Amino acid sequence: MSTTIQFYHLLSTSPERAVPKLMEKALAGGNRVVMLLPSDEQRKRMSDALWTTNPDGFLPHGNGEDARACENPIVLATEEANPNGADILCVLGGAHAASAKDFAKVLDVFDGSNEAEVAAARTRWSRYKADGFALQYVKQQPGGGWKVEAEAA
């Protein structure tokens, strides 16, 4: 499987506002997602965002530790795993995904207002590039949309 890693550079919204829109797009495309978060607190905040972002519904999801995690199209986890057979891994909080090669796509989401996160994203980009992954840098636009700004093979 050839994996593409997309770096999503947030400039005007929080992950809790931006990521649900990415998840809507993923589910509309028939994908399943595992979201890797750095802490239980952030997992709870993202779960709340997935329930409340869309006033007309919610994004079906579950906890990676649930016995029925395999049934959920989106699984929120704090450790790398793929209990729902996802083809997309969404990484928040700066983790380097050791299992990236096991997914068709990795969404690496980072906060552009945090210099430490930007520096860490540059390091991950270099590491993934050295490992031979196809890369895309996707920058948030002033209106909240996205634009691919750079690519590397």
Characterization of the model:
The structure is a single chain. This protein has 3 helices and 8 strands.
Keywords:
alpha/beta, eight-stranded mixed sheet, 3 helices
Shape: globular
Strand order of the largest sheet: 3-4-2-5-6-1-7-8
Radius of gyration: 14 Å
Q: Got a strand count?
A: 8
Compute the average pLDDT: 91
The parts where pLDDT drops under 50 for at least 5 residues are none
Number of helices: 3
Largest sheet: 8 strands, mixed
Gap between N and C termini: 15 Å
H/E series: EHEHEEEEHEE
Range of helix content: 25-40%
Which structural category do the helix and sheet elements fall into? alpha/beta
Question: Hey, roughly how much beta strand do the residues contain?
Answer: 25-35%
Summarize the structure.
The chain is α/β, with parallel strands linked by helices. It has helices spanning 15-28, 40-52, 115-130; strands at 4-10, 33-36, 62-63, 74-77, 88-92, 105-111, 134-140, 146-152. It is built from three helices and eight strands.
Topology at a glance:
Blueprint: E1 4-10, H1 15-28, E2 33-36, H2 40-52, E3 62-63, E4 74-77, E5 88-92, E6 105-111, H3 115-130, E7 134-140, E8 146-152
Parallel strand pairs: 1-6, 1-7, 2-4, 2-5, 3-4, 5-6
Antiparallel strand pairs: 7-8
Helix pairs in contact: 1-2
